[in-house]
Amino acid sequence: MTHPSALTESQPTIMKPMLNVFIRNLTFENLTVGGKPVSDSEFFKTNEFVDGLNFVP
């Protein structure tokens, strides 16, 4: 996973695993970025190798 050092709406956080490496069934608990809660996967830019992102308040 990569992310910019200063999160802005113009620079989304990117979850981009390498070829043949998958991110699956990853759970985030109380995820907050820049003082704002993240409650769904729309926050991340993903590709076909990312599946099953879960968010627990």
Compute the gyration radius: what is it? 12 Å
* Approximate helicity band: under 10%
Q: Which shape, going by the Cα principal axes?
A: globular
Distance between the termini: 21 Å
Class derived from helix and strand content: mainly beta
What is the chain-wise order of helices and strands? Answer: EEEEEE
Give the rounded overall mean pLDDT: 79
Strand content: 35-45%
Overall tally of domains:
1
Q: List how many beta strands DSSP finds.
A: 6
Please state how the strands of the largest beta sheet are arranged side by side: 1-5
Largest sheet: 2 strands, parallel
Number of helices: 0
Unreliable stretches covering 5 or more consecutive residues: 1-6
Task: Describe the protein.
The chain is mainly β. It is built from no helices and six strands. It has strands spanning 13-15, 23-29, 32-33, 36-37, 44-46, 50-56. It has a two-stranded parallel ribbon. Strands 2-6 form a two-stranded parallel ribbon. Strands 3-4 form a two-stranded antiparallel ribbon. β3 and β4 form a beta hairpin. The two termini are 21 Å apart. Residues 1-6 have low confidence and may be disordered.
